Amino acid sequence: MGRAAVDNKEKALLVGLILPGVPASMIDDQLDELALLADTAGAEVADRVTQKRPGIDPATFMGKGKADETVRQAGALGCSLIILNDEISPAQMKNLQRLAGEELKIMDRTGLILDIFRKHAQTREARTQVELARLQYSLPRLTRMWTHLERQMGGVGTRAGAGESQIEVDRRLIQNRISHLKKDLAGIEKQRITQSQHRRDQFRVSLVGYTNAGKSTVMRALSGANVHIQDQLFATLDTTVRKVELEGEQFLLSDTVGFIRKLPHNLVASFRSTLREAADSDLILKVMDASSSQIHIHYQTITDVLIQLDLDEIPSLIVLNKLDRVADPALLASLERDFPGAIFISALRQLKLDHLQQAILDAMHQGQKKVVVKIPHYQSHLLDVIYSTMKVLSRKNTDQTVDLEVRAHLADLNSLKKKLGD
Fold first, then answer.
1. Does domain 200-365 correspond to CATH entry 3.30.870.10?
2. 17: three-class secondary structure by DSSP
3. Each residue of 240-283: pLDDT tens digit?
4. 44-52, strands of its sheet edge to edge
5. Is the Cα dihedral 90, 92, 94, 97 positive or negative?
6. Are 15 and 81 in contact (CB under 8 A)?
7. For the chain, which terminal residue's Cβ has fewer other Cβ atoms within 10 angstroms, N or C?
8. 2-116, CATH topology level
9. What pLDDT score was predicted for residue 238?
10. Residue spans per domain, the chain
11. Strands (E), 224-264
């Protein structure tokens, strides 16, 4: 939809299918979320349509009769856009667009999310990932979209006729561009790994969670850093890393792209490197909106995405944010039962933030011992090893040794003991 859509506020009609075994209330919730996505993209939702069906129509998603009716309804409401709650196939997109005509655009959930991602991508990495995901999504839909892609690519030029040869030229051009973007991302990933290695000696904490759960607000509350905060889905796509100090201890805190239901698979694949900070973390904070009626679904979404990314084995804490919005004691008690051990905070109001800070400190100290080590002066080269692998709490120099009080993992202490023994 782009910038013009934001300025002109296109009107959109939302469409969701109610299939066997899926409660109508769940589709309503998904359409609520779709409406938020549409608003983030710059569209005004005029109405929504649901249809009960025994299955998805392979030709037109909702069946030709319902499709015709939906197109007429969109026209009567002055809509220029129909947004479908699911990702549809290239053939379904082509058939629906033929029914809709040139004045009414058909967009599915994946296309909408990609549009938002393109709008919010700021860094080279995010822009590269978004472009890659968009082209991978567009390639099989090229028979309908080639003239649109011609404008998007910027290097194809204007040609007369839209024959098969034109489509093949665009297909090759896009495939070449995809290959180039993948190489670019591989290079960016190498830089990220190098940067990560430089920070290996520091404890790392990552914020993950459903989009709009307040992760950026949590980050600001913990770090005091000026990070972008906006009450929109996917307000930021770029991983932000800040150094945080608590009671003399330091750790690195990273904020990552938000999750969402039905996050397109090609986006999950494209954003693996953005989520690499989470993969390299010692602790993951799963941030959720405590006031949301969809919190259990949000938790399942977070769990599913972490499993997809092979991050489910990393130690984690559940952080239920926006506690100030939970006024019902019964709801609070229910959340405490459903999420035992969860930490309840309001990052915006700074409520119970000390509970989260203590939990992070406890996680940092998990599996560590506090001991005093005495390093003879002739083995002073081991001081570099100690400072790079352990937390030095105090230091005292004597005539024969350097005495250090340290907090360290048992494996590092045993390794040091062997070096001293040798």
1. no
2. strand
3. 788 898 887 788 898 876 777 776 666 666 566 556 667 778 89
4. 44-52, 11-18, 81-84, 105-108
5. negative
6. no
7. C
8. Rossmann fold (3.40.50)
9. 57
10. 2-116, 122-196, 200-365, 368-421
11. 240-246, 249-255
